[in-house]
């Protein structure tokens, strides 16, 4: 990603983007377990209290491992494509066991019973990180909606809307000095219309917008489509 400074209102920068608590550490959004080595430069980070930052690690590892197990069709580390996640499963036998137990076969098809509470925790964390980092708009309050779905299960119309939104629609400009505004100045007004910000190819991309409120869309591993929206 291109490094862009945040010159927005300093009053929005000094506290945890997740709970409004003290700014004690930096939280990566996306988490490093979602990305492969060598890591991209200038990864997005947001202010976080220590408790919130540490509380996400287990759920982030679960989501990363779940996606790889679904793609591989099993929880065997030797079958996992991403070395970082394969190593994670070898280290955390309990996680490997949980994912193996969540797998079942019915009528010749493989299913994985996902822990939706843990997925929601990660998706919401990512949404909060991105609106704070790009728009300088911390939103520790509950969003209007949070959803996620395997991208191949979206209909053609749903996928088109997810990928492109309302192209050409008039939307509010971001806060003066925010990274989103700086990107618009450098790259043009379409940077947040149909242009996604790619953190690492094939691993993670996201889009933030202000059409009808704050909205963040994310794609993890080109498999899981996610969205968080606030009024």
Which sequence of strands runs across the widest sheet?
5-9-8-7-6
Rounded Rg = 18 Å
Number of helices: 7
Q: What is the tally of beta strands?
A: 9
Overall spatial form? globular
In N-to-C order, the SSE pattern is: EEHHHHEEHEHHEEEE
Percent range for β-strand residues: 15-25%
Largest sheet: 5 strands, antiparallel
Averaging pLDDT over every residue, what do you get?
87
Fraction of residues in H or I helices? 25-40%
Helix vs. strand class? alpha+beta
Show unreliable segments. Answer: none
Give the N-to-C terminal Cα separation: 28 Å
Walk me through this protein's architecture.
With about 230 residues, the chain is of the alpha+beta class. It has a domain at about 10-55 and about 115-230. About 35% of the residues lie in helices and about 20% in strands. The protein contains 7 helices and 9 strands, in the order ββααααββαβααββββ. The strands form 3 sheets. Strands 5-9-8-7-6 form a 5-stranded antiparallel beta sheet, covered by helices on one side. Helix 2 packs across helix 3 and helix 2 (about 55-70) packs across helix 5. The protein is globular and about 55 Å long. The mean pLDDT is about 85.
């Amino acid at each position: 990603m291109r490094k862009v400074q945040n010159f927005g209102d300093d009053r929005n920068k000094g506290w945890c983007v997740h709970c409004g608590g003290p700014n004690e550490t930096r939280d990566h959004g996306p988490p490093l377990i979602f990305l492969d080595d060598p890591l991209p430069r200038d990864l997005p980070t947001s202010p976080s209290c220590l408790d919130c930052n540490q509380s996400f690690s287990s759920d982030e590892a679960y989501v990363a491992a779940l996606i790889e197990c679904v793609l591989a069709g099993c929880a065997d580390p030797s079958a996992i494509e991403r070395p970082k996640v394969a190593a994670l499963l070898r280290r955390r036998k309990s996680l490997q066991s949980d994912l193996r137990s969540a797998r079942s076969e019915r009528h010749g098809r493989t299913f994985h019973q996902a822990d939706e509470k843990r997925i929601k925790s990660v998706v919401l964390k990512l949404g909060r990180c991105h609106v704070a980092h790009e728009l300088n708009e911390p939103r520790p309050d509950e969003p209007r909606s949070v959803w996620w779905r395997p991208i191949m299960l979206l209909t053609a119309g749903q996928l088109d809307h997810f990928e492109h939104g309302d192209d050409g629609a008039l939307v509010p400009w971001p806060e003066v000095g925010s990274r989103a505004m700086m990107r618009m100045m450098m790259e043009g007004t379409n940077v947040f219309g149909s242009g996604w910000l790619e953190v690492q190819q094939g691993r993670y991309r996201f889009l933030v917008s202000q059409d009808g409120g704050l909205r963040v869309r994310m794609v993890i591993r080109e498999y899981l489509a996610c969205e968080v929206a606030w009024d």
